[in-house]
Amino acid sequence: MRVFAISDLHLDYAANREWLQQLPQHEYNGDVLILAGDVSDRLNLLEDAFKALTKRFAAVLFVPGNHDLWINRERLPDSFAKLDAVLAATRQHGVRTDIYRDGELAIVPLLGWYDYSFGTADDYLKAAWADYRNCQWPGHDDISLTRFFTEQNPSMSSSALQDAQQIITFSHFLPRIDVMPGRIPEKHRKIYPVLGTTILESQLRELGSRVHVYGHSHVNRHVTIDGVTYINNAFGYPSEAHFTARQLVHVS
Question: Which residue numbers delimit the Calcineurin-like phosphoesterase domain (predicted)?
């Protein structure tokens, strides 16, 4: 069994949907896919992805990204209702959102959001960042929302992790900002405050993870920091095809 990973499929774009449909039907039938969020903000496209991928892989493991929880194109009251609908779709199509075990290997999903532990959101970011318009989280700000998600994540006391010798974790959001390469221009660093939370870093370390897959930034990365290898394999928008790999990456 092999483990592959990809994130940020953004199937709202026809070119991205075409790539998904041309994936080989039988090459990955014994393998596992980590799908690290941002498939589509439209439920029908999210379900299309689940159907296509579960036909090709032995198991598909998923965490929702921020785009998956937008409600601007859905008749839903808020993003909590969208989250419920997304999770219902995973159950309907056999997509895993819990800990996956195969012998001594455990693959652990970590939910998250952003809590400004990577920086403060300025007026430019508040005006430009689409989540502020397309998500609705009644009763929560981003800091309490991050706690809402991360408090649901497993700990080492979970029975599903007993005797696991190899642990891979994955999230949509970044667990630490220094996974971003130093070459990023200063003007593009304005989005750093909404990239993730240091809570995820603490949690993956406590779990004993040695490989962590994440998405969200659209900056493909394979870097080892303090004993953990961090992998971002974002498919990205068609306009980003010149710097994203636009293919599955073999994780384990």
Answer: 1-219
What φ, ψ does residue 139 adopt, rounded to 5°?
85, 0
H/E stretch holding 92: helix 79-93
CATH value of 3-250 in 1.10.10.10, 3.10.20.310, 3.60.21.10, 2.60.40.1120: 3.60.21.10
pLDDT reported for residue 140: 98
pLDDT score, position 139 = 97
Assigned token pair, 183 = 């070459």
**Residue 174 backbone zone (phi > 0: left; psi -120 to 50: alpha; other: beta):** beta
How far apart CA 232 and CA 223 sit, in angstroms, is 9
Residue 244 has pLDDT above 90, yes or no: no
- 166-205 tens-digit pLDDT: 999 999 999 999 999 999 999 999 999 999 999 999 999 9
> Where do the H-state alpha helices sit in the chain?
14-21, 43-56, 79-93, 123-128, 131-134, 142-150, 198-207
What one-character DSSP code corresponds to residue 78? S
Instruction: For residue 49, give the nearest of 68, 21, 75, 88 by alpha carbon.
Output: 21
Q: pTM, whole model, 2 decimals?
A: 0.97
Which amino acid, one-letter code, is at 54?
T
Concatenated DSSP letters of 10-46: -TTSHHHHHHHHTS-SSTTTT-EEEE-S-S-SSHHHH
Element (H, E) at 202: helix 198-207
For residue 201 the two structure tokens come to 């870093």
